[in-house]
Amino acid sequence: MSCWMPGCPALSMCRVLAALPITCLERAKDLKSRLGILLHKPELGHRIGNSSKLQLGSRHRDSSREVLEWRESFDQLLKSKSGVNAFHTFLKTEFSEENLDFWLACEDFKKTRSKTKLASKANRIFEEFVQSEAPREVNIDHETREITRKNLSGATSACFNEAQAKTRTLMEKDSYPRFLKSASYQDMSRQAAGRGTGKRSHT
C-alpha cells in the first residue's frame, strides 16, 4: 500500500528501511530465523527442566539429612548454617537470641587478623553483650564478666573464650533440648524423615 500524504508514518518507515544497508536487513532476517529454530526445539526446554529438577532433588536430600543431624549433637546444629538460623528463630520466641548472637560474634572475632580491628571489635562486643546493663546482656556470672573486662586491656583473639564457653554451655544444656522438643523442629524433622522414607520406597 502506497501513501502520498506528506508526513505519513508508513512513508517515513519505508524511507528508513530503504536507507538501511542490505547487510543489516540480512542479519535481522538471519537472527529471526535462528530464534524461530530455537523456539521450536521442545527437547531443549525439556533438558533444562530436568536438570533443574535433579538439582532441586539433591538439595532436598541434603537438607533433610542436615535437619535430622541437628538432634545428634549441639555441635552438629552449630555447624549447619540453616540449623543456626532455625535455632536463632526459636531463641527469639524465648527472648534469648542474644546468647547465640554473642557466640556468633565471638566466632567472627576470632577470625580478625588486624590488631587495631581486634581491639575495636573487642570493645564493641563487650559493650553490646558482656558489660553489666549491656543492651543485649548475656547471662554469665560476675567473675567471668570481670575476667573478660581485664582481657580487653591486651585484646587477643582469645579474650572472649571463657565468656563464650559459658554462653555455649548455657545454650547446650538449656535452650537446645527445648529446641529439639519444639513444635517447629518436630515439624521439620517429620518432613525430613518423610522425604527420606519416600526416597527409599522409590529405590
UniProtKB/TrEMBL annotation:
Segments passing through the bilayer: none
Keyword Ligase annotated: no
Keywords noted in UniProt: GTPase activation, Lipoprotein, Membrane, Palmitate, Phosphoprotein, Signal, Signal transduction inhibitor
Primary location recorded for the protein, binned into one broad class: membrane
Residues annotated as domain RGS: 73-189
GO cellular component, one term: membrane
SMART domains: RGS (SM00315)
Membrane topology (UniProt): Lipid-anchor
UniProt key word Membrane: yes
Compartments (UniProt record): Membrane
GO BP terms, alphabetized: negative regulation of signal transduction
Protein name: Regulator of G-protein signaling 16
Protein's organism: Aegithalos caudatus (Long-tailed tit)
Native organism taxonomy: Eukaryota, Metazoa, Chordata, Craniata, Vertebrata
